[in-house]
Amino acid sequence: MKFGYFENLKDPTQKRPYRDLIAEMRELAILLDEGGFDYIWLPEHHFSIWGRELLGNPLLALADLAVRTKRIRLGLAAAIITHWHPIRLAEDLALLDNLTDGRLEIGVGRGNYGLEATNLNPIADPNNQEQNFKVFTETFEIIKKALSEDRFSHRGQFYQFPAPGFRADRAHSVNDPAYVDAATGELVKLTTYPRPYQRPHPPLWQMVDSDRSIEYAAANDCGIIMWRPSVASLKERLRLYRDTAKKARGVDLPLGARTAIMREIFVAENETEARRLAEEPMMGALNFANWRGPKIFLDPGERLDPELEAQYKKKLTYDFVGPRSVLFGSPDHVAEKLEELEIDVGIEQVVVKSSWPGLDHEHTMRSLRLFIDEVIPRLNERLARRKPRVAAAE
Fold it and tell me: What is the torsional sign of CA 205, 210, 211, 213?
């Protein structure tokens, strides 16, 4: 099992110097790097008047972390590619891959917030799901071409590259037959610079929350990062991912390969102490983003009583989400729950989230030190005593 960490800059007081938030991110990244974590993942969000999501450019942030760490993989979770000009993003990703000496992991997303899309790229408004998906898939296709092909072109519904009709101007008097139409002299191919350090491109991931997204990721050689499904739901998603990869690409993947699950995790002496310190901030974050409702925590086929469902749509409770998706407690308890994900599910990566708006940075750091020093060794001891039973997820 590999471990990632999901970090988002936040300040619900909206009074702290942004430089202090950066300093805490740097301190956390160094701890993860030295403590053996495999990945750190950063998100992209804009216009957060609530102070909860304050990182508009994770590429720049990862460039900063690259010079302060040695081995940890540096991941985007995610670059909201529908908000970017596809070629500009491809250029920035390739540059970042070189700046990180090939430690970049590219996670992509469609975007969930109309506030962001309507101000950055209105054609990708997630309130129009079908068009949003079309913009996403076309943008992804362009980025992948630009990263992997030495010369590329694209003609789509939303974008055309090279722009039609260009022949020559000023310094760009194109006469290379590899780039121009011999009959018309029109530019028909482009190359972006630099070329990525990892060839044909850095590993690709997609943030997924639906069967359609899982199928698209599997068909397009993207790993998947899931946020909070229960173990039973997770097993179904892993089978769908594996089966789609086989059908679409003819690839036989072990169940759980190229898959990651995010879990809220807080380690303390016991669950009572973990809840005392972190329950309120964690539940505040879950309820702030509760626009999907309780369905994302349900097992396949599970139905809630209508009155209870309406209650949870207004406010989730720890007693509801805790047994389904949260790992709060002692090192032994957390190691036991991680063992379940390894043995019974076969998930490749667990993405830890131990920081929420309103929780002091020092508590997050202490929880992570306990995770590194006590949870991981206990988990390894447990796993050494038994053979993985990934077939249980079949």
Answer: negative
Please state, as a whole number, how many other Cβ atoms lie within 10 Å of the Cβ of residue 262: 22
Helix axes 129-148, 86-99, angle to 10 degrees: 50
pTM over 0.85: yes
Q: What is the CA radius of gyration of the chain?
A: 22
In whole angstroms, give the CA distance from residue 340 to residue 241.
20
Which CA distances in Å does 42 have to 2, 25, 35, 87? 17, 10, 18, 21
SS3 state at 254:
coil
* Residues β-bridged to residue 329: 267
Tokens found for residue 339: 């063992």
**Helix H or strand E encompassing 160:** strand 160-161
Domain residues for 97?
2-263+346-393
**Residue among 66, 17, 19, 18 at smallest CA distance from 42:** 66
Burial of 127 (0-12, 13-18, 19+ CB in 10 A): exposed
pLDDT in tens, 231-278: 999 999 999 999 999 999 999 999 999 999 999 999 999 999 999 999
Looking at the structure of the chain, the number of domains it has is: 1
> Averaged over 26-32, what is the pLDDT?
98
C-alpha count within 13 angstroms, C-beta hemisphere, residue 324:
21
DSSP single-letter state for residue 107: E
Residue 316 lies in a domain: no
Question: Which CATH number belongs to the domain containing residue 228 in this structure?
Answer: 3.20.20.30
Count, in order, helices (H) and strands (E) of the chain. Answer: 13, 14
